[in-house]
Amino acid sequence: MNQPHPPAPSPRHQGGGANVRGLSQIVESLRLTGGIIGIIVLAAVVAMARAQEESVTDNDVNRVAERMYCPVCENIPLDDCETIACVEWKAEIRAQLEAGRNDQAVIDSFVARFGDNVVGVPQDPVLRALTVIVPLLGTALAIAVGVFTFRRFGARRKFSVAGESALAVEMSDDAYRQRLEADLRGRR
Question: Against a cut of 0.70, is the pTM above it?
Answer without folding.
Answer: no
